[in-house]
Amino acid sequence: QVQLRESGGGLVQAGGSLRLSCVASGRTFSRYFMGWFRQAPGKEREFVAAITWFGGSTYNTDSVKGRFTISRDNAENTVYLQMNSLRPEDTAVYYCAAGTNGKVYEYWGQGTQVTVSS
Questions:
Q1: How far apart are CA 95 and CA 105, in angstroms?
Q2: Which of 73, 76, 82, 108 could form a disulfide with 69 if both were Cys (CB 3.0 to 4.6 A apart)?
Q3: Range in 13-22, 78-87, 96-105 with the lowest mean pLDDT
Q4: Positive or negative, the Cα torsion across 82, 69, 40, 6?
Q5: In the chain, how many H helices and how many E strands?
């Protein structure tokens, strides 16, 4: 089992920045491919970004490329999502997730709310 806890969400004006953190406890953190997802009101949950086990590769959805950066610190069991140039359409609940590969995520956090005002 892996427990995930997100933090760092909040209210920010358009153009601002936030840094989300997700701390993992339980199994060895470096065993897991980590991802960030988001769900806006009335919409399905969507992929945002992912990072491989030791951070060698990252993946971002097109809408956040050049604005969001995913990173991880395996010594601290933490994955981050640095979000810059935020837009109102980035408003959502953001979830971190852990999986043994990049296709299936077995563990999910409770989510943290990000609200971007125009």
A1: 11
A2: 82
A3: 96-105
A4: negative
A5: 0, 11
